[in-house]
Amino acid sequence: MSVEVDMDKCMHCGACVGTCPENVLFLNDLLLEVNKGCIDCELCVKVCPVGALKLRGD
Amino acid sequence: MKPKTGGKIDCDVLVIGAGPIGCTAARFAAKNGAENVLVIEKRQEIGSPVRCAEGVSLSWLEELEIDDLGDAIKWKVKGAKLYSPSGHKMTIGKELAGDEVGAVLERDVFDKEMAVLAAKEGVDFMLKTTAKDVIKENGEVVGVKAENMGEKFEIRAQLVIGADGFESQVGRWGGVYDTLKPSDIMTCFQYRLSNIDFDPEHTHFYLGSVAPGGYLWIFPKGEDKANVGLGLQLSRLDGNKTPKDYLDEFIEDHEEFDKGQAVDMVAGGVCVDHPPDSVITDGLMLVGDASRVVDPITGGGIANGMKQAKIAGEVAAEAVEEGKTDEEFLSRYEKRWRKRLEDKLWRNYLAKEKAMELDDEQFDMIVDALSDQDLDELSTEALLKAVADKHPELVESFKDML
Q1: Average pLDDT over residues B108-133
Q2: Domain CATH for B127
Q3: Which candidate from B167, B237, B244 shows the least CB-CB separation from A17?
Q4: Are B42 and B147 in contact (CB under 8 A)?
Q5: Looking at CA atoms only, how far is residue A14 from chain B in angstroms?
Q6: Which CATH number is A43's domain given?
Q7: Structural domain for A49, as ranges
Q8: How far is A42 from chain B (nearest CA, A)?
Q9: How far apart are CA B277 and CA B262, in angstroms?
Q10: Which of A33, B48, B56, B281 has CA atoms 20 to 30 A from the CA of B372?
């Protein structure tokens, strides 16, 4: 699986990027990219200050 | 040097990230003799959007050779007030004056000022330019793959400095350090509230379950406006409650904010780990939040990062001068910044680890015990010494460092 970003909520702060143990997230200017390699640890989901991330399919 | 996109750019020192730390590293590299210093910044505007609570001391200005911050200082406070969960209160800094007071910055203005200081030393800047990967040859970092306005190109440098913040990609691509533990990550949310009725002469800190594993802050930005935010320890978060939810509840519960309106929202992550074993590899140095030198107690990254960036710039100039950028040569950067900062970082890390164990009752006990003390110095050290005086058991793990 992987995570998906609600771009209406995302504040482009990068908290998830620095937290991801597999470095699959990338903050490209004002766009958060989710790349391959997600291990479903959900740390990015928890760390997001505004709840903009969730596991795909949840 | 006039960088052009397309093809390849060569420089002596390449800094990734035009925050105050990257600009300061670049400034001191140029000031000490490096000729072709280039800073790239992925955003279109330096300093924006702000990702900071903006409260700082000003004690480091002289060390950083900064005469005047001008409009970057928005407000000054006389001291700080600490609140325990059940409402015990202590005030720090009744007799303070001058540079000892705390200041609240306009970070966007401050960041641009730091860029201007670098530009005056001859540093070049490229905005809206993103590093997409580091280029390694024989294990040594020799540049980055970059993108500017849709164009892809390489930037080659004798030395790369990663100043790309909490989410540092350069540090990870360079293989410098490991993943952070959830207990060493703070997740933060803040509003800039206007039209509020509060005491603007102090910064305010709320401890305990209002912000599990962290604290809630009110940093004044004027008579009736302030940054109101909090940081929570990632490992303490459970369920679906976000930092924003915690902050919204606090604001709802406090009548001084009844008429407040948010004019700004800020989110972010902060690393409160101890300093990593290494912040260098062949051809690469990390600096600031990217090198994890945020104060683990306060979560403040500016002062430590600026001091470290000056040293990074000086060593970068020496490296270019001598044509040596291998890890062995760059270890002089490690030695110098650690001598300047590491003891305090470790002490505050151990203090943070202890503070994380405390529950609301213990915070009540501590603040109550300290409430009759007159603490004049607005510093973590002064506070820890006062705690040690009343509750020596709490500082047992780092008493030798006080």
Answers
A1: 97
A2: 3.50.50.60
A3: B167
A4: no
A5: 6
A6: 3.30.70.20
A7: 3-55
A8: 11
A9: 41
A10: B56
